[in-house]
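Project outcomes to date are best conveyed with an example. Our students and postdoctoral researchers have been running inverse folding experiments weekly, and each run begins with a structure described purely in C-alpha cells. The record below, which covers 114 residues, was selected by the lab manager from last quarter's runs and is presented without edits.
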C-alpha cells in the first residue's frame, strides 16, 4: 500500500496558517457622540471639495491614540479639519480573536458644497 503525504501536509499547513491568522473586527466610530467636521471658512470661500481618507489607531478603551491622513482631499485645510474633528470622537473598540484590542480604523469623509 502506497501512502501519499503531500495532500496531508498541504492540508496541515493550510489549517495551521488559518489558525495563526487572527480574526479581527475593526473599530467603529460612535456617531452618537461625535460632531461632524465644520467646513473651514477659507475652504468655503475657495469652494474646495473632496474626499479625505483618515486612519485612526483606536485604543481598547475607544480613544484615539494616533491619527493620520491616508489619502488627501486635495485641500490641506479640509484634511486638517476632518482629522481634528474625528480625533475628538469616541470609537467602539475593535477586537482581535474576540478580545478588545488596539486596532486601526479608516474613515472617509466627503466635503461637498451644496
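After processing, the design step wrote out the following sequence:
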Amino acid at each position: 500500500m502506497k501512502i501519499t503525504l503531500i495532500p496531508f501536509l498541504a492540508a496541515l499547513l493550510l489549517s495551521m496558517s488559518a489558525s495563526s491568522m487572527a480574526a479581527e473586527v475593526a473599530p467603529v466610530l460612535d456617531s452618537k457622540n461625535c460632531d461632524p467636521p465644520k467646513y473651514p471658512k477659507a475652504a468655503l470661500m475657495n469652494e474646495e471639495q473632496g474626499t479625505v481618507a483618515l486612519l485612526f489607531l483606536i485604543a481598547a478603551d475607544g480613544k484615539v491614540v494616533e491619527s493620520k491622513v491616508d489619502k488627501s482631499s486635495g485641500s490641506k485645510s479640509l484634511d486638517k479639519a476632518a482629522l481634528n474633528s474625528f480625533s475628538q470622537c469616541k470609537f467602539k473598540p475593535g477586537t482581535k480573536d474576540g478580545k478588545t484590542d488596539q486596532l486601526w480604523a479608516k474613515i472617509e469623509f466627503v466635503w461637498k458644497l451644496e
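Residues 1-20 have pLDDT under 50 and may be disordered. The domain at 23-111 is CATH 3.30.2420.10 (TolA/TonB C-terminal domain). The training component of this project remains on track.
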